[in-house]
Design brief:
The chain folds into 3 domains: about 180 residues, Rossmann fold; about 110 residues, no CATH class; about 120 residues, no CATH class. The protein is about 40% helix and about 25% strand. By secondary structure, the chain is α/β, with parallel strands linked by helices.
C-alpha cells in the first residue's frame, strides 16, 4: 500500500503531495518548507485513526450478522473511504496543526491519499465470543484467529478482531485485537486498532542540529518533569498548557524526551546486527555505549578502553548517534524522519551513510530525509541506477565490480524524490522528480550550482591566460 500526505498553502508551501511510507528524499533551498513538512508528517502519525468512526465503518462494511461484522478495504471503496477521512481531516486541520507546532499556522488544505497494491485488499473480522459457537462464523473467522498462539484464554474474551491482508488471493492474518469488557463503542475501538497497523507508523523525527541537542537535552529537562505540567482552564475544563514545551514543536520535544528516556534493548542488537556492524565499521569507526544512568559515550575502533564522553566526541559522532539509539531502543521505530541527514559528515562518510540508510530501508524501516548535499544525492542516485540495472538484467556479478553488497541496493519502486521549488510569490511548490530510465534523477538545484562554479572556473582561466 502507498500512503501520501498532501497540503496546500501551508506555511512556506503552496502545494505538496508526498509518499510517506517507503523511502522519501526531500531536496530544496533553505527556508522552503522541508522541515515544516517533515514535522507535519511526524505529528500526523498517530492522528489519522482517531478520525475513524461509524461513517467510515459503514463505507467498508461488507457483511453483518448478529454479533459478527466483516469490513473490506478494496479498490471498490478505497476512494470513498479516503474522501470520508479527508472531510473529517479538513474540519480538524487547524487543531491538528496547533497540536503539532504549538502555534497557529495557516493551512488551506490537508489530505491523505491511499493506493492499494494490485490484486490486494484488507479484511477486518470483528465478532464477540459467543458467535464463535456458530459454525459459519467459526469457519469464516476461527482459522485466522486461532493462528495466534497468544490468544490462549479465548473463552474469557468478549470482543475479538482480526486484520488480514489478501494479496493475489492469498490471505495473511496480520494482527489480532481483543477487548475483555463489553462497551458501547467496542467495535469502533477494535476497528481503529486494526487500521492503526496500516495507517500509523511508530515514528521518530530526528531534527537538524542534533549535535547541540545531544549535548543540551539534559539541561532542557533539568528543571522539568512530566509531573510538573502546568494547566489552564479552557471551556470549563483543565487542559495542558503548551508553555511546557518552551517554544518547541511536539516532534522536537518528543526527540528530546526520546534522548532523556532512552533505554537499550539488547535484543535489538541481534535484530539489526548487520546494519549496526556496518554503521560502526564504516561510519563512526567505533561503538556507542550507554551506562545505567543513561549517559552516552563513544569508544574508538581498536581502542575500546578509551571511553570518550559524548560532549568530547566529534560533531559527526553526535550527529549520527541518534540513528543507533533509534535502532536499539526498547521502542520499535518503523519510520525515521531525518532532517539534514548529512550534517557534519565528510563526503566520504556521506557515501557510506547512503549505503547504511539503504540497508535500513531493506530491513523494512521507512525513511524520510532531507539533504543539501550533492554528494549524498549523487551516491543515492548512482545506487538507484545500479539497482535498477541489476534487477532488469539479472546481473548480480556487477555488485562486486562496484565493491557493493546486495544490501546496499535500492528497490527502485520504493524511492520517491521531491524537490522544493520557490515561486515568485515567495512560497514553494513540491515537485516529484520522475527518474530517467538510464540516468536516474535530475537534481536541478545542484546542477545549477555546479554549472555556476564551472563557468566561474572558466572565467578565472580566461583571466590567467590574459595575464
Amino acid at each position: 500500500m502507498r500512503f501520501w500526505i498532501g497540503v496546500e498553502n501551508f506555511a512556506k508551501i503552496e502545494s505538496a503531495r508526498v509518499c510517506i511510507n517507503n523511502y522519501t528524499l526531500f531536496v530544496g533551498p533553505n527556508n522552503s518548507g522541508k522541515t515544516f513538512l517533515m514535522q507535519l508528517i511526524q505529528g500526523l502519525s498517530d492522528k489519522i485513526t482517531g478520525l475513524l468512526d461509524e461513517d467510515v465503518m459503514d463505507i467498508v462494511l461488507a457483511e453483518k450478522i448478529e454479533g459478527y461484522s466483516k469490513y473490506l478495504i478494496n479498490k471498490d471503496n478505497i476512494v470513498q473511504f479516503t474522501e470520508c477521512i479527508n472531510k473529517k481531516l479538513h474540519l480538524k486541520k487547524e487543531q491538528i496543526i496547533e497540536d503539532i507546532f504549538k502555534k497557529t499556522i495557516p493551512i488551506e488544505k490537508l489530505y491523505i491519499d491511499v493506493e492499494l497494491e494490485n490484486n490486494s485488499f484488507y479484511k477486518i473480522d470483528i465478532t464477540d465470543n459467543k458467535c464463535l459457537e456458530n459454525e459459519k462464523i467459526r469457519k469464516l473467522f476461527g482459522q485466522q484467529l486461532f493462528s495466534y498462539g497468544s490468544l490462549k484464554n479465548i473463552d474469557k474474551l468478549i470482543n475479538i478482531g482480526v486484520l488480514s491482508e489478501v494479496k493475489e488471493q492469498k490471505e495473511n492474518a496480520l494482527v489480532a485485537s481483543t477487548h475483555l469488557s463489553p462497551a458501547k463503542d467496542t467495535k469502533k475501538f477494535i476497528f481503529r486498532d486494526m487500521l492503526r497497523n496500516i495507517f500509523e507508523k511508530s515514528s521518530l523525527f530526528l531534527p537538524a542540529s542534533r549535535t547541540g541537542l545531544m549535548l543540551l537535552y539534559r539541561d532542557f529537562f533539568a528543571n522539568k518533569t512530566d509531573d510538573a505540567i502546568s494547566y489552564r482552564v479552557a471551556e470549563n475544563r483543565l487542559v495542558q498548557d503548551n508553555g511546557q514545551y518552551n517554544g518547541l514543536t511536539q516532534p522536537v520535544y518528543d526527540f528530546l524526551r526520546f534522548l532523556q528516556t532512552y533505554s537499550e534493548d539488547e535484543k535489538k542488537y541481534e535484530t539489526y546486527k548487520n546494519e549496526l556492524s556496518f554503521f560502526e565499521d564504516k561510519i563512526i569507526e567505533g561503538h556507542i555505549n550507554t551506562n545505567k544512568y543513561g549517559n552516552f559515550s563513544y569508544n574508538p575502533k581498536n581502542d575500546y578502553n578509551n571511553i570518550i564522553p559524548m560532549y568530547l566526541a566529534s560533531a559527526m559522532v553526535n550527529e549520527v548517534t541518534p540513528l543507533v539509539l533509534a535502532l536499539t531502543s526498547e521502542t520499535r521505530y518503523e519510520r525515521l524522519i531525518i532532517d539534514e541527514v548529512e550534517a557534519s559528515l565528510h563526503p566520504e562518510k556521506q557515501l557510506e551513510l547512503v549505503r547504511f540508510l539503504n540497508r535500513l530501508n531493506n530491513a523494512s524501516i521507512n525513511i524520510i530525509l532531507s539533504t543539501h548535499s550533492d554528494t549524498f544525492v549523487s551516491k543515492l542516485n548512482n545506487l538507484y541506477v545500479l539497482s535498477k540495472y541489476i534487477k532488469e538484467n539479472s546481473n548480480n556479478e556487477i555488485e562486486k565490480y562496484f565493491h557493493l553488497e546486495k544490501e546496499d541496493l535500492i528497490k527502485s519502486e520504493n524511492l520517491f524524490v521531491y524537490e522544493f521549488i520557490f515561486q515568485p510569490n515567495g512560497k514553494s511548490i513540491v515537485k516529484e522528480i520522475i527518474p530517467d530510465s538510464r540516468t536516474g534523477f535530475q537534481f536541478d538545484l545542484f546542477t545549477k550550482s555546479a554549472m555556476e562554479l564551472y563557468n566561474e572556473a572558466l572565467r578565472l582561466g580566461e583571466i590567467n591566460v590574459n595575464v
